[in-house]
């Protein structure tokens, strides 16, 4: 009897905690790294609501069942759209395409040459490379990238774990530069796709698990959101965002006029990050998606595919983008 009462109390405590977490997500409340990580794992945490619902029905505890059902409905509302592919606009069929590769190469990668070979085999037009470092850069060039991807945009003096590089077969045009927007460093490339100027922004903001990392990450995303709201279209923002799409700040970023490319393809619940590049923590495989491509109007995700990690704790992904042409070939605001 005591055990049964304790089990019931535990269920109510879990319902209360999950409800509070959902409320913070709905109200876009975020103020601490622990809460941010809880938002990242919310799709998993809400799985507890299903278990509670089953036990409540078995017990005939209808009030508890009703409370759990509300959480289950929210869970479904969160997940189902991630599996539904958006309608492809008619203009995409005849629009020129850009093949983009996004890859966090991992500064401590034990097999950078293997990863470099895989990336080159992907045959992308543009690569957004995160955690760019001298060791990988050397292997990348030895694999043939020095000739096949001669156009580079990076800060050679940035030796941090958050360095960004954009490597391209296509020449960069005016406006391409490394930019510092508040505390965020970004690679801002402008290329021609057909007759249209396309902006590709590569980012790798600070991880929330670093000391003081969440506050810096939050400031970086807020600055990025303000920047994107005023930048010319079409634009693609890609990289390791160090967040899932379930944090309130990420949702605010989408409201600046962007669409998550994986969501648009019905692949919003695919994952890209492993807890470790190797060893026991790597055994479960990828657990959440931290690597994203956000697209403005005028850019449509046609296809996306993950590659092998090859020594990284992230899976690279390739994405095919259709770019709508304007009459004058100029970016529109």
Describe the secondary structure blueprint for this structure:
Layout: H1 2-26, H2 33-40, H3 42-45, H4 47-59, H5 62-79, E1 97-104, H6 112-121, E2 126-130, H7 134-148, E3 151-154, E4 164-168, E5 177-181, E6 184-193, E7 196-203, H8 213-230, E8 235-240, H9 248-254, E9 259-260, H10 261-264, E10 291-295, E11 299-306, E12 317-323
Parallel strand pairs: 1-2, 7-8
Antiparallel strand pairs: 1-12, 2-4, 3-4, 5-6, 6-7, 8-10, 9-10, 11-12
Structure report:
The protein has two domains: 2-83, no CATH class; 90-323, Deoxyribonuclease I, Chain A. Helix content is 37%, strand content 22%. It has ten helices and twelve strands. The chain has helices spanning 2-26, 33-40, 42-45, 47-59, 62-79, 112-121, 134-148, 213-230, 248-254, 261-264; strands spanning 97-104, 126-130, 151-154, 164-168, 177-181, 184-193, 196-203, 235-240, 259-260, 291-295, 299-306, 317-323. Strands 3-4-2-1-12-11 form a six-stranded mixed beta sheet. Helix 6 (112-121) links the parallel strand 1 (97-104) and strand 2. It is globular and about 70 Å long.
Instruction: Give the CATH level 1 class of the largest domain.
Output: Alpha Beta
Helix content: 25-40%
CATH architecture of the largest domain: 4-Layer Sandwich
Strand order in space, largest sheet: 3-4-2-1-12-11
Strand content: 15-25%
Euclidean distance between termini CA atoms: 66 Å
Give the total of domains. 2
The chain-level mean pLDDT equals 95
Which structural category fits the helices and strands? alpha+beta
Largest sheet, if any? 6 strands, mixed
Computed CA radius of gyration, to the nearest angstrom: 22 Å
Q: How would you name the oligomeric state of the polypeptide chains in this document?
A: single chain
Specify the overall morphology: globular
User: CATH topology of the largest domain, which one?
Assistant: Deoxyribonuclease I, Chain A
Order of helices and strands: HHHHHEHEHEEEEEHEHEHEEE
Low-confidence stretches: 329-333
Total strands: 12
CATH superfamily of the largest domain: Endonuclease/exonuclease/phosphatase
Total count of helical runs of at least 4 residues: 10
